[in-house]
Structures are given as C-alpha cells and as structure tokens.
C-alpha cells in the first residue's frame, strides 16, 4: 500500500516533491476522482487512490513511495447527462491534461466511447487501449536563445518526419525524428540557404482519427492533439522527451530559432460520437463550447469540437502549456492554428479577448514570436489584420495575389503593390507594420510550389474522399501540360515561374516564409490536401534530379534581402518618410497613375525602393505577360547592376538603359551598391 494524504491544489498535474508526488486535477462537477497507478508495463492497474476536493473544483492527493517516472491516470465518477453536457464515466481511464510525459500507445476501440451509438452508457473499460500519463523529471531549458529580430527572420515551415525521412546523409535511426532535424547535414542545409527560423508542424502528442485508420491512412500533419505538454512520441528515438530539448539547443547553437505549430482550437476527442480520453471525462461543458442546455458541440473548427477559451481553467491550461514549452523546451515562438477561435467569445471575435490580454502581460509569453493563422470556419471567422500588436499573421491575401499575378490574371496590379509594400491596408489600422505580415506563396496546406506550376486540378484521390477534399481555387497553372512531363520547354518554364514567385516573395516587405521542399522542387503529385499521406507524397526526396535547382537561388535571394535595410524597417513607407521611399513605375519608368493601375491588359510592374540614408536603391521588375517588353530603367546617379533574375544570365540584352524584359520573368537591380553580379 502507498501512503497518501490530501496534498495541495496547485500546481495542476503531477509534481515531484522531496519524498512524494503531488497530483492535482480540475474536475468541478465530479462526485469522486480516483488516481490510478500502473505497473512499469502500463497495462496492470496496481492501485486506486481517492483524491480530495478543494474549493474551486480541484482534486488533489499527495502520494509517497512512488517509483521515478511512475505511470498513472484518472477515473472520474459523476453525472452522465447528455442534456447538461456532463460525460463522467468511471470506466474511462483519462489522461492528465497536464501530463508532461506519456507511456504506451493509443489503440482505437469501442471502449473509448462514453456512450454507444444507440445512446446507452458504455460500461466497457478502455484502460488497455489508452496511453498513460507518466511523471516527468525534465529540467528547465538552459540554452542561449538566438533572439532574432523580426526584420531579419526567414521562416522554413517544416514537418518533423517528412523533412529527413529519405535523407540518406542522416543516420537511419534519426531520420524522421527530432534528432534527425538536429543532425549536422540538415542544419547545414538550412544555414546554407540563410534560414534562421524553423516552424515545425504540430509536435504535441496527437492521434489519427478513426475514419482515417479504417482506410489505412494516418493523420500525418498532426492537427489532432491528444495532450498539450508532451512531444509526439513517434518523433523520439529512445522514447525520451529530452530529445526535443536537445534538438532545440542544437538549433540555437546554430543561430536558428524554433517555432512550433500549436492546435488549441480543438482536441482529438471530436464531438459527442468521439472518444473520451481526457477533457470530456473531467469537465466536458467547461473545456468545450456547447449549445445551451445540451451536449451538442459547437464546431467552428470542422473537427467535431471547439475549445472553450472563455472558461478560466481552459485559458489557464493553454497559457500553462505555452509557458512550459518556452521554459522547459526552449522554443522561441508559436504559430496558432485557426487562431480566430482563441479570440472568439460568445459575441464573436474580440481583439481585446482575455487570451490576448493574458499573453500581452505575461513576462515570458509576451517575449515570444506569436503568429496567427487568422481564420477558422465559424461565423466571422476570417480575421486577417484584426489581431492586436505584437501578433503576426499568415497573410493568405499575399499568397493569392502573387499567385494570381503570375497566373497572368487581370486587375491584379493594385493588390500586388499593396502586398509587396507589406499590406498596410491590413495591418496599419491598429498601429502594426509590414513585419506583422507573414508572406508566403505555399505552405503545408495546398499545392507545393512545384505543383502550383504543374497542376491546374487537384489530385487528391489517394485521400479516399473521391477528390472532394482540399481547395478548388488554387490560382495555379500547368505551363501547358497537366502533371509530370519530360517536355524540356515546359519544365524550363515551370522552374522559371517558381523563381518568379521566390523573387517576388523575398523582395517584398514583410517576413518571408517558405515551405520545406520548396528548395528541392518537391512535388506531392498534385495532392493539395496531403494531411493523411504518411509516405513519399510528403517525404522530401533529397536525391531527385530536381533537388538542387533552387537551393542556391534561394540562398542568393536571402543574402540580397539581408543587405537592404528597407526590409527590416518596422513601419510602412509613405511619402513623408525621410529614410526610405517607394516608387511604382510602368515600363517607361514613368509613375503609375490611375489609368495604368487599372488597365486590365497590363501585367507588368516596376518597383523602386530607395534607402535615402545609404543612397542605395533596389529595382524590381515583374513581367507576368506572355510577351517580352522593352523596359526603360529609371534614372539614377550610378549605374544599375543586375542582382537576380529568373532568366539565365545569358538572356541579358541591355541596350543603353532599355532592357528587353522577356515574357514571364522577374529582375532585381541595385544601384550604388557593392558586390553586384552584372552591370547594365
């Protein structure tokens, strides 16, 4: 028998003390909460200990004589009432919401469901099929963080497994793992490009939905969280959570920040017909948004449930999780999936929501990089530009506008100028600047950059949904042939169009982000929703013939970008700006006027960016039309020098100050600048 006493109600979770462990869990509507201790295998439940109720609905118990890294779970006895939304069921072993480590695996079975399809109470015990909570001995992170300014940040969005699974320069046991990302070969790859921030798709413990596993598929992306404090075990080599901390420290020593994608909008428990794994059995009506006086879940996520951020203990859980990943794992920032939900109360989205205020005043979290995916599928869910300072946002309008321009759509020039300028129409209204815009052409969701210029129609049949899933409006084009081809001219045009997009991206004001594999010309064979493809569709092919064509190109673009202060400027540039100026010009080097801006036949834009302090200028020429143009370069005190072009250098045809700008091409020049490649 283990010795136990009441314990204390704070902190929540399992806490190692000198000679005992304190367990505390929030279950405000419960009649009784039992701490279940398991043997080292995690299958035999060796003891159940009644916990003690504190004011406010927290239960605790202090236990002596437990082994290091003990394995445990909770059982909760209380009301089971679909009308009031209470789903207590003592037969369900529950994960500790504050578990810092997990033991074992999750297996799908009917035993996980609180009730059976006909609505009857399910008395089956699910413990055998459940992972268990595990006491952690992880120490706080002690590494030195790079603290990279936003104006110098270049983000590489990356899936832990897919990035290194096929990289034969990395030892086989490390491939597809956190330590695979931390391998010298991958670090060197990022450094050579100039990337200094890696944004990892979800690394919180997650499970695959049952509708996927029955089709032989897996939730590859990981947006189906099981626990908010533990690293996903599949990404560990030796089942040791310290490996994530080790990875972060290696990245930091290389001068690379680590941002993680977090999913606080829903959990893996889905709706009423979903499993009871943790939150449902503890406080269903508190952790999730329910319709009044019912067990009907509000589904603003499309995943079955929606986290109830208005509940104080749910808010506390999220803040505690974020703080834990910063203090114990050393992460530098977060990208919040479907972040509009975190600012939505009963009356809709509110930029002054308690969640934003809590982070803003938090001495730890307020210093982190905070990135919002500013939309969800709920009412009023599209909130691009509505987040408060210091939040930064994925700018899908940037993505769509740049795609439309290179797709040769009409009436795009005014929007294109706004996006290159940093999207002041979206961010300046609440005193934010161009660096609050996370600019991207592609991300994990949608076509890869190569597929964007290779497919006009999505090819998602492998997902098992009759090609009904994924976006239909991708602003993509196939350069003449749908899908893969051996046609030399078509492939040359596809490569050039990828370069056009990248030049536009890195020569725009804002924070640039590329998706992993962009530099390797990675293709998903036209799948624009590859969330369930844990295979070569998603795994980067490091040895393909295409895998080296853009690495050096991106590296040179980032080097060029870093040399111009205008991309680090924290405010939008207007006519009264003394330090910088922006000029929009036509092919005759004349200022754009209203007629030219709205000419539907015009698919050319010239942008001149001047640094008035350093007397340097950057000139961007973008020609999306199918015809070449004779373009006059603007007057300057010194000669223009070619820095980058999507065309081979041999295509340069300069006559005085008139340049033959070929069809579907982009050009970058500089003036009064050392280190130029070509002189005009």
TrEMBL record:
Q: Which residues form the Glycosyl hydrolase family 13 catalytic domain?
A: 153-561
GO terms, biological process: glycogen catabolic process
- Matches recorded under Gene3D superfamilies: Glycosidases, Golgi alpha-mannosidase II, Immunoglobulins
Which InterPro entries has this protein been placed in? GH, GH13_cat_dom, GlgX_Isoamylase_N_E_set, Glyco_hydro_13_N, Glyco_hydro_b, Glycogen_debranch_GlgX, Ig-like_fold, Ig_E-set
Keyword list, A-Z = Glycosidase, Hydrolase
Q: Name one GO molecular function term.
A: amylo-alpha-1,6-glucosidase activity
> What family does the entry list?
Belongs to the glycosyl hydrolase 13 family.
Protein name in UniProt: GlgX-like protein
Organism this protein belongs to? Pseudoalteromonas phenolica
